[in-house]
Design goal:
With about 475 residues, this protein is an alpha/beta fold. The protein has 2 domains: about 270 residues, 3-Layer(aba) Sandwich (Aldehyde Dehydrogenase, Chain A, domain 1); about 200 residues, Aldehyde Dehydrogenase, Chain A, domain 2. Helix content is about 40%, strand content about 20%. The radius of gyration is 23 Å and the shape is globular. It binds nicotinamide-adenine-dinucleotide (NAD).
């Protein structure tokens, strides 16, 4: 594959330093291509281009920009198979999943925000003999920083509302998954989006992301990634009073009540645990089961997990591909070892040597889905984000205990409750400290709703109006009436 380049001011260019990084296929260990190892100089070029393009882009009407979003959606839709295969190659995820989730959602993100713009209403408030008009204007040049697990899905989730609201962009995708961000730049180039409106800088977090956040002419930063990195981003941006959106890690609880119809939900629970090899921030990595159904649940769940087909990502029948890298695999394995040291029992899966995955390349980052039982809810393995195919099982005896266990980590991103009694589920959901609680479903997303985390899972909300508000400055113009 041709080397990937930065996209700055409407041109594909290498890093000024000429340095590159290798891009590796994690399922085979093979070299895919190289990407620019950019630094502050490339960031400065991209920010200068974004700022030069600001006034003109901001002067276009929202209807014009919504039409751009429709054109982008259409172009991405026509390339959906390429998006899916690039994403699968870059991340090791199964091609079927990349089609259903990554390629499809990237299109619908642009289409959704375009359609949603028609629902934006002028806001006017009358009181004290005055009329207040709320005016919306672009924030300016915005920095978008994204992780590797859902590369184009998450990048387009930020790019679409940022463009719609009239901002110009400097984007930095994960250095591990640059391919579909590059494809997006190619789409913009083919469609003739004005130079400087969208700029893409590849490279490492401290060398590209950090100078982006530090740059005085980047007015807002939307960051999705790990909590530890989020703290660095927040500490950098806060003294500069930038608008900041932080979508961070999670340690989500899946609560299974004693009245849940086990046999009809077990496939959903397996999916909620192991989609994308557990590398979705919303995956339920702690399963809390009512003690009265623990034995029955464990048997059915482990059977479902063992039925997952772990294999090469390009095969249609693969349910779970590789992890993102050998380094990440080692980290996940260190948590499994820790779980055993902390007193847990591995019911299925485990370390590579204990659980070889037949038919996968020797250099691939494959691991069988792993279930650990018998840990206390405050064990490190049960409270720290592993972000891999590992779940821990715990029991509770009352609704209050389940809620206390769900809330016992520093995270607060998502959770799910499974029950035949929806009212009971809703009562419990109101007490779970997380941004989303699903009842009898998982990853069921209406893009108009708020998305984001509490506690160490982030600050702010994305989705629908929340995204539009983040990417806008709101001014109140108050006019005294005669
Ligand atoms: P990460 O924090 O390592 O990296 C995320 C991005 O930040 C990358 O592009 C990286 O290069 C960049 N970065 C690194 N250091 C930086 C710095 N000092 N300044 C600016 N940018 C910097 O995360 P990851 O390993 O790529 O992704 C996995 C994490 O993302 C998990 O914790 C997962 O829960 C989280 N995540 C959260 C959500 C959500 O919506 N809450 C969604 C997906 C993933």
């Amino acid at each position: 594959m041709e080397p990937v380049l930065n996209y700055i001011n409407g041109s594909f260019v290498p890093a000024r330093s000429g340095r590159t990084l290798d891009n590796i296929n994690p399922a085979t260990g093979e070299h895919i291509t190289s990407i620019p190892r950019s630094d502050i100089h490339d960031v400065n070029d991209a920010v200068a281009a974004a700022n030069a393009a600001r006034a003109k882009w901001a002067s276009t009407s929202i209807e014009e920009r919504a039409t751009w979003l429709q054109q982008i959606a259409k172009a991405l839709e026509s390339k959906a198979e390429t998006v899916a295969s690039l994403e699968s190659m870059d991340t090791g995820k199964p091609i079927g999943l990349a089609r259903r989730v990554d390629a499809a959602r990237s299109v619908s993100n642009f289409r959704f925000f375009s359609d949603h713009s028609t629902e934006l209403e002028d806001q006017t408030f009358v009181s004290n003999n005055a009329v207040n008009h709320v005016q919306r204007s672009p924030v300016g040049c915005v920095g978008l920083i994204t992780p590797w697990n859902l590369p184009l899905y998450l990048l387009s989730w930020k790019v679409a509302p940022a463009l719609l609201m009239g901002n110009t962009i400097v984007a930095k995708p994960s250095e591990l998954t640059p391919l579909t961000a590059n494809l997006l730049a190619e789409v913009f180039d083919e469609l003739g989006l004005p130079p400087g409106v969208f700029n893409l800088v590849h490279g490492l977090g401290p060398e590209v992301g950090q100078p982006m956040v530090e740059h005085s002419e980047v007015q807002a930063v939307s960051f999705t990634g790990g909590t530890a990195t989020g703290k660095v981003v927040a500490a950098t941006a806060a003294p500069m009073f930038k608008k900041l959106s932080l979508e961070l890690g999670g340690k989500n609880a899946t609560i299974v009540l004693e009245d849940a119809p086990l046999h009809s939900i077990v496939d959903d629970l397996v999916r909620a645990s192991f989609t994308n090899a557990g590398q979705v921030c919303l995956c339920g990595s702690r399963i809390l089961v009512h003690e009265s159904i623990k034995t029955e649940f464990t048997e059915a769940f482990v059977r479902g997990v063992e039925a997952l087909n772990v294999g090469p990502p390009h095969l249609e029948e693969t349910d779970m591909g590789s992890l993102i890298s050998l380094d990440h695999l080692s980290k996940v394995e260190s948590y499994i070892r820790l779980g055993v040291e902390e007193g847990g029992t591995v019911l299925t899966g485990g370390l590579r040597s204990n659980a070889p995955v037949d038919g996968t390349p020797a250099n691939g980052a494959f691991l069988r889905p792993t279930v650990i039982d018998g840990l206390s809810t405050n064990a490190r393995c049960a409270t720290e984000e592993i972000f891999g195919p590992v779940v821990t099982l715990h029991t509770f005896s009352s609704d209050d205990e389940a809620i206390a266990m769900a809330n016992s980590t520093e995270y607060g991103l998502a959770g799910s409750i499974w029950t035949a009694d929806v009212e009971r589920g809703k009562r419990m959901a109101e007490q779970v400290e997380s941004g989303i609680v699903w009842i009898n479903t998982w990853l069921n997303r209406d893009l108009r709703t708020p998305f984001g985390g509490m506690k160490q899972s982030g600050v702010g909300r994305e989705g629908g109006d929340w995204s539009l508000n983040f990417f806008s400055e709101l001014t109140n113009i108050c006019v005294q009436q005669p």
